Amino acid sequence: MDMMSVRPALSGKTYFIRTFGCQMNLHDSERVAGLLDACGCLEAADPAGADIVIFMTCCVREAADQRLYGQCNSCKSLPAPPSGTRVVAVGGCIAQRDGEGLLTNVDNVNVIFGTHAIAHVGELIAQAFEDGGRHVSIAEDESLAAVSMPWHRETVYHAWVPIMTGCNNFCSYCIVPYVRGREKSRPFEEVVDEVSALVRSGVREITLLGQNVNSYGRDRYGAPRFAELLRKVGETGIERIRFTSSHPKDLLPETIDAMAETPAVMPHLHLAVQSGSTRILKEMNRRYTREDYLDLVRRVRDRIPGIALTTDIIVGFPGETEEDFEETLSLAREVGYAQAFTFIYSRREGTPAAAIVDPTPHEVIQERFDRLVKVIEDTAYEFNQGELHATVPVLVEGASKKNTRVLQGKSPKNQTVHAPIPEGLNIEDLIGKIVDVRVDTARTWYLSGTVAGDPR
């Protein structure tokens, strides 16, 4: 089916997208939504009101597969959609990994599109409506065509900006390089032009996306250009720059300098350590040692005092001993993370670590995990005490779920901040604005205080 016939086939159809996983998946979902909008589709509030239900999947965790199967099966019991026919589609990493094999596990799925086939999702769904068949596209596309697709952003003040796709690192536990492919960087000028256009449209904060942003440009230009990109993007007028993910082995001194010297770059760095044991790091194929990581942290803090450091940590990697785990605990205490995403190791078929036999009982791993969570809670609480009685500029995201008269937003260090909405204002007046909040309470996972001054 050619694109000329896609819009008539989809016009007036309603859609609902449920996204699992990382920020790259969130961005992919916004692109899919933008494409459907351009085809005349309308967004539905829930799956029951949707002619098209799309699941954008992540396969980093083993439980993701079962979660997807459950979500797909739940569509069978939904009432008939507005058009009388419902198309269920699966995209993202599980779709790329399993392809047609997914059809045998979920018998009500009509469309499967991989991470390289986002630009074709409209055609695939239109075909499914037209012939009632099941359509699959997971072929690798060497282009980055998806980034030029229409875009349906979740907010008007923030935008995800992919600067590269894929990963070359092949950590032994990770499935991502197999489903996202090898690193492909976007042209430097294209990224800068996109950010400039976003600034003109009113965007105040961007997040630069890549599986390893520190490698940006190596495949295209022969050497990394991420530091240069940070500086150039900082000249566009964008007020806040964030980025993820950042691999420790590739965080160069010039990037740290660019972070320190570019005012728009927020004082927050997500630097995934995964383990505090050099032995386990080697088994993970992370290509740095515990000492390398701690030295990097010291260099970052020397250049950017007070920076918020966050991380990812895996507990229970095959063969991890109590001694290895204690090294992780001590590293977490020494670094003093503002936040950490902690995971129990999940075996993924097709990765080298999946072949390692580990006799460690699950209850031992769970007990270690619980100890790590307590350490992270302690370091996060201690870090937030540094903001007590300070005034922080907060980008307002909306109202607190617990109290609609309390605003919620993010500080430059990516801390969640709450404050009562000033008299005479509504949350609609504040979303996307920056307000100064004088902090009078600092808890483990949030700050709270009082708005000081007018929103801007």
UniProtKB/TrEMBL annotation:
Cofactor note: Binds 2 [4Fe-4S] clusters. One cluster is coordinated with 3 cysteines and an exchangeable S-adenosyl-L-methionine.
Residue numbers binding [4Fe-4S] cluster 2: C167, C171, C174
Keywords: 4Fe-4S, Cytoplasm, Iron, Iron-sulfur, Metal-binding, S-adenosyl-L-methionine, Transferase, tRNA processing
Catalytic activity field: N(6)-dimethylallyladenosine(37) in tRNA + (sulfur carrier)-SH + AH2 + 2 S-adenosyl-L-methionine = 2-methylsulfanyl-N(6)-dimethylallyladenosine(37) in tRNA + (sulfur carrier)-H + 5'-deoxyadenosine + L-methionine + A + S-adenosyl-L-homocysteine + 2 H(+)
Residues engaged in binding [4Fe-4S] cluster 1: C22, C58, C93
MTTase N-terminal domain mapped to chain residues: 13-130
Kinase is among the record's keywords: no
All copies of domain TRAM, residue ranges: 382-453
EC number: 2.8.4.3
Cofactors named for this entry: [4Fe-4S] cluster
One Pfam family of this chain: Radical_SAM
One GO term describing the cellular component: cytosol
Intracellular or extracellular location(s): Cytoplasm
Gene Ontology terms for molecular function: 4 iron, 4 sulfur cluster binding; metal ion binding; tRNA-2-methylthio-N(6)-dimethylallyladenosine(37) synthase activity
Stored InterPro entries: Elp3/MiaA/NifB-like_rSAM, Methylthiotransferase, Methylthiotransferase_CS, Methylthiotransferase_N, Methylthiotransferase_N_sf, MiaB_methiolase, rSAM, rSAM_horseshoe
Top-rank taxon: Bacteria
Domain called Radical SAM core: residue spans: 153-382
Assembly notes: Monomer.
Family assignment from sequence similarity: Belongs to the methylthiotransferase family. MiaB subfamily.
PANTHER family recorded: CDK5 REGULATORY SUBUNIT-ASSOCIATED PROTEIN 1, MITOCHONDRIAL TRNA METHYLTHIOTRANSFERASE CDK5RAP1
Purpose: Catalyzes the methylthiolation of N6-(dimethylallyl)adenosine (i(6)A), leading to the formation of 2-methylthio-N6-(dimethylallyl)adenosine (ms(2)i(6)A) at position 37 in tRNAs that read codons beginning with uridine.
Protein name (Swiss-Prot/TrEMBL): tRNA-2-methylthio-N(6)-dimethylallyladenosine synthase
Upper classification of the organism: Bacteria, Bacillati, Actinomycetota, Coriobacteriia, Coriobacteriales
Gene that specifies this protein: miaB
